From TrEMBL:
<feature type="compositionally biased region" description="Low complexity">
    <location>
        <begin position="23"/>
        <end position="57"/>
    </location>
</feature>
<protein>
    <submittedName>
        <fullName>DUF305 domain-containing protein</fullName>
    </submittedName>
</protein>
<feature type="signal peptide">
    <location>
        <begin position="1"/>
        <end position="19"/>
    </location>
</feature>
<feature type="region of interest" description="Disordered">
    <location>
        <begin position="23"/>
        <end position="58"/>
    </location>
</feature>
<feature type="domain" description="DUF305">
    <location>
        <begin position="68"/>
        <end position="229"/>
    </location>
</feature>
<dbReference type="Pfam" id="PF03713">
    <property type="entry name" value="DUF305"/>
</dbReference>
<dbReference type="InterPro" id="IPR012347">
    <property type="entry name" value="Ferritin-like"/>
</dbReference>
<keyword id="KW-0732">Signal</keyword>
<dbReference type="InterPro" id="IPR005183">
    <property type="entry name" value="DUF305_CopM-like"/>
</dbReference>
Length: 234
C-alpha cells in the first residue's frame, strides 16, 4: 500500500512539473510577440523620424524677394499653357508613341509644379496671379509695362498666342506633331530663361531649387524634342 501511494505521489509530482513547464513555455511564447511588437514599434518610430526631416525640408520658407514672386507668378501660367498644349496633343488620334510619352511626361512634371508655385505665393502672402499687364503682354512674348526687377528686359518668353493654340488644336498627324515640338521647344526655352533669372536673382531656397530643376528637366526635353523633330522632318 505504501508503494502504491508513493508511486501515485511521484506520478502527481511529475504531472505538476510538466504542467509547470508548459505554463512557463506558454508565458515565454507569449512574451515573444510583445518583444516583436516593441521592436516593430521601434522601427516605426525610426521611420517616422527619418521621414520628418524630409517633410520639413520641403516646407516653403517665408523669406523671398521680388524676383521670387515674379518667377512664381510668371511660371504658373507658363506651365499651365505647356500642360494645355500637351493635353491638346494627347486628345488626338493615332498619336506617335514618342510624342505621347513626351506629352505625358510634361503634364506629369509641370502639373505638380503649378501647385507648388501657388503654395509658395500663398506662403509669402503674395497673389497667385499677375496683378497687372494680364495675358496680353505674356502672349506677345514679352512683359511690356511690367517691371520684374531685371535690366535684361526678358519677359514671359515662349508663350503661344491664342491663334497658335487654335492652329495646334486643328492640326492632325505629322503637321500636329511638328507644330507641337516646335512650339514646345520655344516654350521651354522661355521657361529656362525665366528660371535662370530666378537662380541669379532669387532669394527663396525652394524657388531657386525649383528653377534649377526647370532648367535641368527642360534642357533635356529640348534635346529630346529636337531629335524627334529631325526624325519627322527626315
Amino acid at each position: 500500500m505504501k508503494r502504491s501511494t508513493t508511486l501515485s505521489t511521484l506520478a502527481l509530482a511529475s504531472a505538476l512539473a510538466l504542467a509547470g513547464c508548459g505554463t512557463s513555455g506558454e508565458e515565454t511564447a507569449g512574451e515573444a510577440p510583445e518583444t516583436t511588437t516593441s521592436a516593430a514599434a521601434g522601427t516605426g518610430s525610426t521611420d517616422t523620424a527619418t521621414t520628418t526631416p524630409s517633410t520639413s525640408a520641403q516646407a516653403v520658407t517665408e523669406e523671398h524677394n521680388d524676383a521670387d514672386t515674379m518667377f512664381a507668378q510668371m511660371m504658373i501660367p507658363h506651365h499651365e499653357q505647356a500642360v494645355q498644349m500637351s493635353e491638346v496633343m494627347l486628345a488626338k488620334d493615332d498619336l506617335d508613341p514618342d510624342i505621347e510619352a513626351l506629352a505625358n511626361k510634361i503634364v506629369a512634371a509641370q502639373g505638380p509644379e503649378i501647385d507648388q508655385l501657388k503654395t509658395m505665393l500663398e506662403t509669402w502672402g503674395e497673389p497667385t496671379s499677375m496683378e497687372s499687364g494680364g495675358m496680353e503682354g505674356m502672349e506677345s512674348g514679352g512683359m511690356e509695362g511690367m517691371d520684374h526687377g531685371s535690366d535684361s528686359g526678358a519677359g514671359m518668353e515662349g508663350m503661344m498666342t491664342e491663334e497658335q493654340m487654335q492652329e495646334l488644336e486643328a492640326a492632325e498627324g505629322t503637321e500636329a506633331a511638328e507644330m507641337y515640338l516646335t512650339m514646345m521647344t520655344a516654350h521651354h526655352r522661355g521657361a529656362i530663361d525665366m528660371a535662370q533669372e530666378e537662380v541669379a536673382e532669387g532669394q527663396n531656397p525652394q524657388a531657386i531649387e525649383m528653377a534649377q530643376k526647370v532648367i535641368e528637366d527642360q534642357e533635356a526635353e529640348i534635346q529630346e524634342m529636337e531629335r524627334l523633330l529631325q526624325q519627322i522632318q527626315g
